[in-house]
């Protein structure tokens, strides 16, 4: 994937992939680079890029990594890029002592518009319980609404976040803060319109920024559609179902000798295991994916009435001859779980006098390999084939993350990715150490449209300077229309619930500290897992037939294609009735009780041990039109 990403950085790559002279040169360069890429892999890479070039020529975007990392250098026009630069000037054109440097950034990161300033503060912010506000009415609502209570622990009860057995921790849900998105509606001409204020961007003074950002959101939506599309689990470039070895370098050890202690015997076996060389799996011939099986997304169609919610961030990284190096960022996922960010868009709109920088991505690997036929407790293939570190074994907690690769952060690029993979900004420096340089970004965080959160349509502005504008206006009106004693009475009743800048910055430090602790806990959970390589699936032929029958019957009855179907699993050592079960998702009714299913399990004459993928193949061979997937298992 990284090689394909690198090739798509080349000018006119969509034409060059069809030029045999150029692709031959690429093959030679990669072969000489020491990369673990076989000729068959290069065949696949070229063919897949040729296929991707067809859509690239139409829309100018390419999916870099299968998890949903999408890039485009043409989505944002040069005219719109220029407009954003101009709209940012009022935020940048301030005296040095008034610049809002992000805390702990060594005065290198300037926050122009940042969601950590004036967020929702539970127990301090106000919310409008019976109405929403828009760009025209938000300033008039300052100080209104009810105090937002601190959510209870029951209210922030959580469910698994990333799957594969990893559960989110309570620290990832904040009982103190929440970033504030603005509401965005779709227009009849397929555009987007911001309808509630961008937190920390004045709806009147900074109106130019609103007009630019809503146009960029419009261009980000097609990329988000691709980022959030579901790709079927079993569409793999390289199928790996069994472990194969080259011819033994040293013979397999004999049995333990009578005078040999256990440690010595185990050492002989470990020496033998370490000597074996794995035969690396190869891809087959490239065939274009069946896009009809992909879970395609169209945000504009799906949420035409509700619209979207987007958190806006505008920031600059500024380097100087005195501070010429940016150290890079840390691995993280955006926001906390109560913010429900599902995808991010970053637009790199201005770069000057800096070295190349990249954004790296990593994912948490699935920690079971039931579809691979391996010897019990054999874990060496995890390093040799899947690229995990040498500390990985089959028993202990270890780092289960896989680095996907990185994407160049070049000026003019719009990049989107889902908020289930971690990302990290790489270090960069001044190109010419005698001159200053910078990189400027616009970041847009898309809230899960299925689970809307408190937005600026619900919370009146909290900024003191915004509130004082309204208060001064009211005071002037009172002076012209009421006697002094009544003016005093009215002014006493005027709510003053806005925050001073000093208060807001103090809350920001508290928010950052909370998220720093949550991030440490989250990273530990994200990184750590245990590859359990000592279980077998026991599935029965009788239960295959029943699973196929139930699934296909409901599909034929027009219920729809199941997203997930479970197989009967039967534990045959003691009680075959204790674990016989079936679950089918996607609102497909299941016929028969667990007792009925247990009776079917008891009819089995001879169990068959098979991998998950073998079970898939057998089901598909029996004309099962659904895609089955295990939902549980019992170790034998």
Automatic annotation (TrEMBL):
<dbReference type="InterPro" id="IPR049192">
    <property type="entry name" value="DUF4246_C"/>
</dbReference>
<dbReference type="InterPro" id="IPR025340">
    <property type="entry name" value="DUF4246"/>
</dbReference>
<protein>
    <submittedName>
        <fullName>Uncharacterized protein</fullName>
    </submittedName>
</protein>
<dbReference type="Pfam" id="PF21666">
    <property type="entry name" value="DUF4246_N"/>
</dbReference>
<feature type="domain" description="DUF4246">
    <location>
        <begin position="40"/>
        <end position="469"/>
    </location>
</feature>
<dbReference type="Pfam" id="PF14033">
    <property type="entry name" value="DUF4246"/>
</dbReference>
<feature type="domain" description="DUF4246">
    <location>
        <begin position="1"/>
        <end position="29"/>
    </location>
</feature>
<dbReference type="InterPro" id="IPR049207">
    <property type="entry name" value="DUF4246_N"/>
</dbReference>
């Amino acid at each position: 994937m990284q090689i394909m990403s690198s090739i798509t950085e080349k000018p006119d790559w969509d034409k060059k992939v069809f030029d045999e002279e150029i692709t031959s040169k690429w093959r030679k360069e990669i072969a000489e680079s020491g990369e673990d890429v076989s000729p068959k892999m290069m065949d696949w890479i070229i063919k897949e890029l040729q296929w991707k070039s067809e859509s690239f020529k139409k829309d100018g975007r390419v999916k870099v990594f299968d998890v949903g990392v999408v890039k485009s250098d043409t989505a944002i026009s040069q005219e719109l890029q220029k407009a954003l630069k101009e709209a940012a000037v009022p935020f940048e054109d301030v005296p040095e002592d008034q610049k809002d440097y992000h805390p702990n950034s060594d005065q290198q990161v300037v926050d122009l518009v940042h969601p950590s300033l004036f967020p929702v503060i539970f127990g301090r912010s106000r919310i409008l319980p019976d109405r929403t506000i828009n760009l025209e009415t938000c300033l008039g609502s300052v100080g209104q609404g009810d105090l937002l209570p601190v959510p209870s622990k029951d209210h922030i009860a959580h469910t698994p976040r990333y799957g594969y057995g990893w559960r989110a921790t309570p620290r990832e849900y904040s009982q103190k803060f929440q970033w504030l998105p603005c509401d965005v509606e779709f227009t009849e001409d397929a555009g987007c319109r911001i309808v509630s204020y961008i937190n920390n961007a004045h709806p009147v003074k900074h109106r130019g920024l609103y007009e630019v950002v809503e146009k960029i959101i419009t261009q980000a939506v097609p990329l988000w559609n691709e980022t959030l599309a579901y790709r079927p689990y079993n569409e793999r470039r390289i199928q790996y179902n069994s472990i194969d070895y080259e011819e033994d370098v040293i013979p397999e050890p004999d049995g333990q000798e009578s005078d040999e202690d256990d440690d010595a015997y185990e050492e002989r076996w470990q020496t033998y295991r370490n000597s074996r060389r794995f035969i690396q799996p190869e891809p087959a011939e490239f065939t274009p994916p069946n896009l009809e099986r992909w879970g395609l997304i169209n945000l504009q169609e799906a949420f035409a009435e509700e619209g979207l919610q987007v958190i806006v961030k505008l920031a600059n990284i500024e380097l100087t001859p005195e501070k010429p190096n940016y150290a890079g960022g840390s691995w993280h996922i955006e926001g906390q779980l109560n913010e429900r960010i599902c995808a991010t868009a970053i637009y790199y709109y201005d770069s000057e006098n800096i070295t190349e920088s990249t954004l790296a991505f990593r994912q948490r690997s699935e920690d079971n390999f039931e579809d691979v036929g391996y010897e019990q407790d054999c874990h060496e293939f995890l390093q040799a084939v899947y690229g995990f570190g040498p500390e990985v074994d089959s028993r202990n907690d270890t780092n289960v993350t896989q680095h996907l690769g990185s994407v160049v952060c070049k000026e003019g690029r719009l990049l989107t990715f889902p908020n289930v993979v971690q990302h990290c900004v790489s270090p960069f420096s001044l190109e010419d150490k005698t001159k200053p340089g910078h990189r400027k970004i616009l970041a847009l965080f898309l809230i899960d449209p299925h689970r809307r959160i408190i937005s600026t349509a619900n919370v009146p502005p909290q900024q003191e300077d915004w509130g004082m504008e309204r208060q001064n206006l009211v005071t002037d009106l009172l002076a012209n229309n009421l006697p002094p004693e009544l003016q005093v009475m009215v002014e006493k009743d005027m709510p003053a619930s806005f925050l001073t800048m000093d208060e807001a910055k103090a809350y920001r430090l508290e928010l950052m500290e909370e998220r720093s602790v949550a991030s440490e806990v989250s990273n530990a959970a994200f990184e750590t897992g245990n590859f359990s390589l000592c279980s077998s699936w026991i599935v029965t032929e009788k239960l295959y037939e029943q699973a196929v029958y139930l699934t296909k019957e409901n599909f034929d009855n027009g219920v729809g294609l199941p997203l997930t179907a479970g197989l009967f699993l039967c534990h045959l050592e003691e009680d075959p009735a204790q674990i016989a079960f079936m679950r089918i998702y996607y609102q497909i009714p299941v016929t028969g009780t667990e007792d009925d299913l247990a009776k079917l399990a008891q009819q089995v004459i001879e169990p068959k041990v098979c991998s998950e993928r073998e079970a898939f193949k057998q089901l598909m061979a029996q004309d099962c039109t659904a895609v089955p997937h295990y939902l549980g298992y019992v170790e034998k």
